[in-house]
Amino acid sequence: MKRVASLLFIVALAVLLLYVVAGMPPMGDPDNPTATHVIPRYLERAEEETHTVNVITGIILNYRGYDTMGEVTVIFCALAAVLAVLGRERRGVIHGFVDRSEVPSSTIVKTMVRFMVPFIILFSVYTILHGETSPGGGFQGGAVIGGSMIIFTTIFGLYESSRRIPLKVRASLEGAAVMGFFLVGALGLVGGGNFLTYAWPRVSRSLHPSLVVWLTVLVEVGIGLGGAMVLTSILFAMIREEEEIAPSS
Amino acid sequence: MARDIVAGVFCCIGTLFFILGTTGLLRMPDLFTRLHPSTKCDTLGACSVILGMAVHNGWSWDLLKLVFIACFLLLSSATCGHAIGRSALRRNIPYWKKKEVTEDGHGA
User: Fold this and answer.
1) Structure confidence at residue A97 (pLDDT)
2) Which residue of B has its CA nearest to A102?
3) Residue A15 burial (C-beta neighbours within 10 Å; 0-12, 13-18, 19+)
4) Are A136 and A127 in contact (CB under 8 A)?
5) Contacts of B108 (CB under 8 A, 6+ apart)
6) ipTM for the complex?
7) With 80 as the cut, is the pLDDT of residue A58 above it?
8) Strand partners, B107
9) Chain centroid to CA B97: how far?
């Protein structure tokens, strides 16, 4: 009976969803409502208005700057929630790395991780700094740094990796994404424009392109560093309990 | 033209290795035998595709990037396979043995 009821429910849901899908505008049609209103403006004038060759970066950091600022605030709030529940590791509590895994990491893996992590971080710097000219940007680069920290911590343990990125550094950089946005936004006010305007009325027109690019890169770097530190801190908060019990000897 | 053909052949070889690796991953009976075909995906498969792209692309700075990608792929894939295999071996994960097949098709 239960089976029949759930089967009927699934069939009804499928019919409803298929009906809705059938009524959707065809995919890729240039006459779709999504492609007729704001997209042409973005595609035609993004480079001229935002001075970023990568239109996506122009949209998320410039046209929709407020939206992205909200997003990075949400990421920061997520970290705050994680830390509120799990708690931050206290300084000096981690006495050493206790390898609790059944199999200790092999020399090959350790050597490879030590060799690769610098290159991964180099690549993420490349990704962040090229955000406005090629695919990439702060979010992606930050996630790559965070991923490299996850690899490093998995192999070498919390003790080693929290020595590489001390609590002080993390605590001061976690808000970098939000701070970068607010800094650039406030600078826009100083320059005589509105909050988060990249082109400042008080600066001569000829300076605008390079100014806009530098402000965009500043926001990108902020998002990258902030995102990386948020990921690292969440990871550390989650594995802290395992290693806090380490003997103080 | 000749370059396109060579590039296409390399990409096809790479795709073939991916198909074989995935089939092996699904069909092999235990971890160790599965590790064998699945590591071929990254090393032979992806590197053939990258070689094909390098031939297609010719001499340029992108070639250097492709070479780097291939190098890191080879290093990380081999390390990954080693880590999984070693860890499984140390944990005494049982080897697959051929079992007598009973009439209902299940192993004894």
Assistant:
1) 55
2) B91
3) exposed
4) yes
5) B99, B100, B101, B102
6) 0.75
7) yes
8) B101
9) 24
> A97 forms bridges with which residues in the sheet?
none
Helix, coil or strand: residue A231? helix
How far apart CA A238 and CA A232 sit, in angstroms, is: 10
What is the Cα–Cα distance from A135 to A128, expressed in whole angstroms?
Answer: 10
Residue A126's nearest CA partner among A153, A144, A147 is: A144
Query: Could you give the CA distance from residue A150 to residue B52 in angstroms, rounded to a whole number?
Result: 33
Helix axes B47-57, B61-90, angle to 10 degrees: 180
One-letter amino acid at B89 equals L
| pLDDT above 70: residue A190 | yes
User: Which helix or strand (DSSP H or E) is residue A59 part of?
Assistant: none
Distance (Å, rounded) from C-alpha B103 to C-alpha B108? 10
DSSP A207: G
Dihedral, B27, B30, B31, B34 alpha carbons, nearest 10: -30
Q: At a CB cut-off of 8 Å and minimum separation 6, what does B50 contact? A: B14, B66, B69, B70, B73
CA distances from A126 to A93, A132, A137, A217, A220 (A): 35, 11, 9, 12, 12
Classify residue B2 by burial, with Cβ atoms within 10 Å: 0-12, 13-18, 19+.
exposed
Confidence of residue A155 (pLDDT cuts 50, 70, 90): confident
d(CA A101, CA A105): 9
Compute the distance between CA of residue A217 and CA of residue A131 in angstroms, rounded to an integer. Answer: 8
List of chain A residues whose C-beta atoms are within 8 Å of the C-beta of residue B77: none
State whether residue A6 sits within 8 Å of chain B by CB.
no
Q: Is the pTM of this model over 0.80?
A: no
Distance CA B57, CA B64 (A): 11
Q: From the list B72, B75, B91, which residue is nearest A103 (CB)?
A: B91
User: Any chain A CB within 8 A of the CB of B97?
Assistant: no
